[in-house]
Structure formats: structure tokens, C-alpha cells
Amino acid sequence: MNRFFYYLILINMITSVVATNPKILFQYSDKGAIPSMLLAVGAGLFFTYAVATFFNKFPGKGLPELLNEASPKWFAKCILFYLSVNFYLAGLITLITYTHILKLFLSPEMSIYIIVFSFVLFVSFGILMKTRSVLYTIEIILILFAPVFVYILIKAYANPIFDWDAVRVAMMQINHPPELSSFTTATFIFMGSVNLVIFNRVFTKQQKFSSKSLLTVGIIGIVILFTLYFVPIGFGGFDRIKDLVYPWISATDSMRMKFGLVERIIFIFMLLFLGIALLSIIIHWHIAFHLLDNFVRKKQRSQKKFNPTPYLIIVLFWMLAFMATLQLSEYQLFKYITVFDNLLPIFFLLLLLTFFVVNRGAQSK
Amino acid sequence: MTNFQKSKVLLLPLLLLLSTILQTGCAFKDIDKRVFVAAIGIDPSENDEGKYKITLKILLPTGSLKESTGPKFTYLSNEAETIGESIRTLETHIDKVLEFGHTKLIILNEKLVSEEIGNFMDYFTRRGDIQLISYVAVGRPSADKILKTEVATESPASIALFNLFDDNGTENPFTVTTYLFEFRRNIHGKGIDAIIPVIETNNGDTELVVNKSLVVKNKETPLELSPLETMLFNSLKRNKGGLDYKVDNEQLTLLLDIINVSMDYKMFTDKGATPRVDMKVKMAGVIGESSKPLHLKDLDKYNQIANKEFHSKIMKLLKKFQEKEMDPFGFGLRYRATRLNDKNTFSDWEKLYPTIDFDVTVDVQLNGTGAIE
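Above: the input entities. Below: the C-alpha cells describing the complete assembly.
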């Protein structure tokens, strides 16, 4: 697979680190989190494999085109709508979570409108960008931030106050049956490959998802999942880790750069994760936008005439984002995210069904 | 390019420029409208006005570093039922916003430590704007007194109370540094107890002295460690070198400069046998002072003397913790970490801890006798 495929997966993983995924996992830290995470690695890799091999069969084509060619219209419309809602929600969750985080830790006095506004403003540019340009944006930001991320990882694991005994206590909770919510949340970090539904449009060269690709995704996934779960435990201890609302923010606030320009790593971390989160929202909403655009579009749009549809969709995105951010309390947000994650198996099955239908349609032609 | 695309090119720089309006600096409140709280002190109330007395040490800005002779502080103090209430009241006592983002020290009164300290301290974690890397300490005789002690060595832009703990100013094994996150982790953690340094003043209130510490457990009387015990604990648990240690023998008195310390332990809890902790301590250093001339060829002999001395001191410290059922080393956590969890793991350990045997091996490597033999 080309490097952009890995970027898509990586962005999804890194975003999950700060979002609510660790918090959901910690709810089951003394129940079934560890076995669920182990299962999730397998499920996630299988999912990645299924998605990648499917799209490799149709280089240069996104899911909307494939559906239009090879499946009944009603089916195509249903799937497109369902997928676009899901992608929009995925982006929205990131947006709301980060708005809460900024409000709580970075600028408690700033109006929530301005925070959301500054997010959606820049995201809107990302949505309207060409798909290829989005990929280049991802590359630039990732290259800028990757060293910082590695630095934070080293800083965390090399910290003398990092309590490995607490980590081992958490590992010893392996003798529990797995739990659905923790399983789906852990699987979510492997969902980056599903972004191919639109991004496959620019992957025009024939590619192969080899065992080496699988190994790469597997190793990165395991490292991120391990970090995501155990770093907050190493700093915050095992017994009361459930109490932390943003375990990762607290974990980075526990690291100190003795001779750094700023002593608190949390500010570097915030910058890094804001960048990555912005990318993640752009990716998800870019896809949601294109899927929705294909959903409402009847025939090929003429190039010359001005068409208001894209802007209407963006206005819709903005309105929903403002309403949701203002309405939801942290508890509700947490509850809805759990529901969203728990619906992942359905999403997965529907996607497999779509692949099957498209494959059959393509063969019968 | 169509007209629309052209206008998009113009629109983008315009929007980017407009976005600078949002950048008004410190979240719409300039730095001169804020005061920075350097440290928070909490004492039990002196009058009947409430439960706690909160003292804030506030940094005053100086016009220029060259002209000022030292940092200037002001103090705010108030009594109330809760800490939050008290801080809220203090906000009405000052014309500026109290900013806790630079707070680096939380000083507790000794009397508060034996209360339900864990949930009480959660206030600071809950706030979000207080650093989790701020230091926690006990002030003696009171937090208020320690905060108001101004030390002669304080220069502008360097605050003595911070220098004591930040491993950047004074670095010595007598000072335990406990961060807020570490305190929270250990006070709530089952199988490990928190340890916090004690700050005292000398007679004339001109110096701050930090060489003792308290082992703290929820709702229990804390266990005080003497300077020597604090130093031993610090060098074993945190591998802090730089300790000077006096060794007395019938013939000679040595002062050892231990530069490196490393400690490792294993736990054996096989059924049938007495549970045992095997602790291996390695130390390396030089001889700094002696009552008699020394011989380099006798270094092995001096090693033996030092081994014996450290062995008995470490055993004494471990026994002391065991007797009081305090566990700042975290043996209980290690016990939990090495077996599959079930709901009795921790209660098993609580029964086990008083009966456990310690087997300490000390290996001191003295490398020289300093510049003279």
C-alpha cells in the first residue's frame, strides 16, 4: 500500500488517544478491558485487511461510483446516507471532545462559540479542498508533528516516576470475559482504513495489501493501543483511573521538561493533538461531505453553472455542530459516544454486505 | 479560472487575516489584569469562621529585573468551609483575576494530613488549571508560616520554595519531591502509600529546612521519617545519589560519598515457606572524610564496614515501615502486579505484609579515598 494509506490509519489512531476512547476503556479496567483489547487487535486487522483488499480491486474508484455502477439505486442511496451520517458523527465527536478539552484546560474563559467557530471555519476549507490536496495536508502536518509525538512517547516511558507496577497490575486484570463496549472502542482505533471509501479515488495505481502491510498496521496499532491504555495508568495509578475525565491530558500534565522552554509538556501536546484532531475532523467531514453530495446529486453536475449544494451541506454541518456542542454535557457526550462505538459491528457488517453486493455486481457485468 | 474560483483565492487571505482578530492574547484578559499565585497553603481554621484557612502566595510583577533586589510577594488569606469557597471569596479581595496556572506548590498543615486527605486533595486535580506537576509538601509549624518566610538567597525570578524541590537548584537526597499526580496516585492506590516532604523554618525564620518526610495514608496518623531515614528511602526508591553517610566502627569513623545507588527487589510468596522480599542494593562512591589515614589497598575492608552499616540501617527502615503497616516502597503494588487479579488479592497482601521477611544484600563499591590516602 502507498504511504497515504498508512497516514489515514495513523491519524485515526493518534486522534483516538486523546478522545474518549481511553476513558471508555478505563470504565472496564477492572472488568474486561484487556481481553477486549487483545480481541480488538485481531478484529481491527481483519477489518483493515477486508477494506484494503476490496478497494485494491478497484483502483481510482470511490465507493459512491462503485455503488452506482454495480448495485440497485435504492441500495446505493441507503448505504451512502448511512455512511455519510456515520462519518459526520465521527468528526463531530472529535470536534465536541476537543472543544470541551480546550475549554477546560487551555482557555477556560473563552466563549464556546469562538472555539467551535474557529474549528469549523478551518475545517470547512478542508472539506472543500480537492481530495488529493487533503492527502498532502495530512502528509505535511504528520511530518511536522511525528517527531513531537515520538518525543512525548519517550518522555512518558523514560520517566522515572512512571509506575510500571501499576501498569502490571492493570495487565493482571486479564482474567475477565471481554466486554462489548471496550471491544468496540478498541477496534475503533483500527478504523482508519475505512476512509478509503472516498480516498481510493486518488489511489489510481494498482496496489497490494501484502502481509508486510498487515504487519506494519498491526505493530503500529499495538503500540498505540498499549500507549493509549497504559501511559495514563502509569502516571495516574490503576485504582482511581476511572475518575479522570481526560486521562491523557492528565497524563501529559504529569510530565515535566526540566530544561524545556516551557516546563509543562501539556502545551506541546495540546498543539500536537489540535493539529491531528483538525486533520481527523477534516478527513471525516470531507468524506461525509462527498458521500452526502453523491446522495443528493441526481446526475452529473455541469461544470459551468454555479451549484449551491456543497455550500448548503456545509451550512448544515455548521449548524449541527453548533447545536450539538452547546447542547451536550460531558456525560451525555460520553454516553452517546459509547452508543456510537457499540454500533460499529453493524457498520462493519453493512460495509461487508456492500462489498459483497458490489463484487457480485462487478462480476455480472 | 472562473469568477468564483478567483474570488476564492482572494477570500482565503482575507479570512486568514480576519482570524487574527480572534488572537487577542491571554483569552481576552491581559497579563496586567491577572495575578499569578505561586503557592497555596492550607491550614485548619484558627477562628470559628470555617474549617480551613487558605493562604495564597502571590507574585508581584517587577518593572525591571536589574533594579529589583528580590521577588516581591503579597499574601491573601481567608477562612471558609471548603477550599473552593475560600478561593472564591479571595477573588473578591483583589482587583485582578487569580491565575493558578503557575501554582507550583501546595503546602498542607500537618494536622490535615491525618484526615481524609485523598478526597480533599482531589480539589486541585479537579480544577484542571493547576499543574499536576506542582509539588505537595507539609509545612511546619503551619503552612501559612512557611509561605510567609522570605529567604535571603531569593533572587528575582527564582523562588526559593520552588528551587527546593525542582531538582535544578539544590539537589540532595534529603529532599523528597512529590508531585501532585504522584501524590494522588499513591494515596488512592492500594498497596502503596504516599510520602511527602516536610518544610520547616529555623529559629529566626530566615531559612527553610527540608530534610524530613511523612508517610501518609488516608485517615491515619502519618509516620514521620528522620533526615537519615528520608535520605535512605530517597536513595533506595528514587535512586538518588549524592548522599553523605557516616559509618562508625570501633577503630575509625568514615564519611562516605555515595554517588550511585540502585535497588532492586524480588518477592517470594511460595506456599509453605515464609514470604520473603529479597532486596539487592548496589552503591558506588568514594570516602570523603576519615578519622584516620586510609590505605587504598584496604578499600575492600572499608567496603565490608560500609556493607554492614547500610545493611542494618536498611533493615531497620524496612522493619519500621512494616510495624506501622506503611508501604511507601509499594511492595503491595508489586504483589498485586505479579499475580492474576481476584477480589482477595489485596486483603491477602494485608495479612501477609506484617509477616514478611526481608533479606537485604548491600554491595558497596568504594572507588577511592578522595585526593589523599
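Note for the figure: The mean pLDDT of chain A is 88.
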